[in-house]
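Dig into what follows:
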Amino acid sequence: MILRRLAQALKEQNWTAITVEFALIALGVFLGIQAANWNEQRVEDAKAQAYLARIRGNLATDLLSIQRREHFWRKVIDDGKAAIHYAESGELVQGSAWKTVLAFYQASQLWQWVPSDATYQEMRSGGELGLIRDETLRESLSQYYLESGSGVAYIFYLQPEYRKIVRGMTPSVAADYIWAKCWAQPSPTEQRLLDCDSPVSEAQAQAILDAYVKDPKLLPELRFWVANQGVAINVIANYRTSLNAMLAREKKNAP
């Protein structure tokens, strides 16, 4: 319609009409481009919010898993220190040979930690990190996932030699009982170390302890493992601080 009027105006050399028609064409093109841009922006905004919601879930999951591991690792450290104290002084845990055996065994427990980074890695591989328009949040996420997957994170994945030694020396009757009565996993994301009665006599428990302390590698490896768990707690505490800051910033940017 516009083109037909423009052709007629050109034929009649009606310059006013020609100017108006050109203006209408330019306006139509402009509005069409703007509409396309607005629609594309809405699509990108919706995608960004979907990604941010998933990242928020990943960060919340990491925060909970860190809190649970801090509690678990502290219990492992406490048991390890009690076992070291016995090896160095001969003082039984609460005057019980069995509770001392339990301390040695529970000190070998580990619970590795890996961040929930599926959403971030998906965005990174798809070249869509730019959808996170908050530069501070984007850089914080990058630093968090880079550090948690870097060399410093080996402390979270380490399987100590002490674990192999003490478990290899613990009789099956005691080890099986510990797993049945002194450890629990209420859900795939939880572990608990429990107090429990003894499946053996105090004399039998003392014999296990005597075998432990005679092994020249056991005590040095236990000291190393306890120290490593202490470092892990300190490092993961920094991640907890970063997670809280990122969650607060993401909440601020939420629609």
Remarks:
- The chain has one domain: 2-253.
- The chain has a mean pLDDT of 86.
- Residues 2-253 form one domain.
- The two ends are 43 Å apart (CA to CA).
